[in-house]
Amino acid sequence: MVFSIVRCVLTAILLVVEGISDIKKREILLAGPIIAAALSVILLVSDPNRNIPGALLGLAEGFVIIVFSFITNEAIGLGDGVILCATGLLLGWKDNLFLFFWACLLCAVFSFIALIFQKADKKTKIPFVPFMAPALLITVLLRGG
């Protein structure tokens, strides 16, 4: 239980810091995901209930987004994939997948509203990471804590 809380707090800190960077600078600071990944490995080794396969699958989800970033010439941000690699190690594959789903849904709703009010058009690039922190909250609340 303690390890789960620590992983969620680390993930929240990572997402808030990187979300602010994504809004202000349109870039991801690589130090954050690297530190989060290193701490995740320490937590995995320390946790008696560790789920190493789940963490590695979560990491793989981030790599899939990185591959799509290269395929789409970064229409999907490379930094988004890097963040998902770190969150995948911290949260495991299931929670990381839910995190990604809810972030996509929140981003889509925001984009739709921005289009309706003509604050954006179909070519407007919207930072994705800021939607991941509220998506984490939704994910944690829906899984029951």
Which runs of at least 5 residues are low in confidence (pLDDT < 50)?
none
The number of distinct β-strands equals 0
Overall number of structural domains: 1
Task: Assess the beta-strand content as a share of residues.
Answer: under 5%
Mean pLDDT: 92
Give the count of helical stretches: 6
Helix proportion of residues, in percent? Answer: over 70%
CA-CA gap between termini: 10 Å
Overall geometry: globular
What structural category do the secondary elements indicate? mainly alpha
Describe this protein's structure.
With 145 residues, the chain is an all-alpha fold. The chain has one domain (2-143). It is built from six helices and no strands. The chain has helices spanning 2-25, 31-46, 52-71, 78-91, 93-116, 132-143. Helix 3 (52-71) packs antiparallel against helix 4 (78-91) and helix 4 packs antiparallel against helix 5 (93-116). The longest helix is centred in the N-terminal third of the chain and has 24 residues, at 2-25. It is globular, with a radius of gyration of 15 Å.
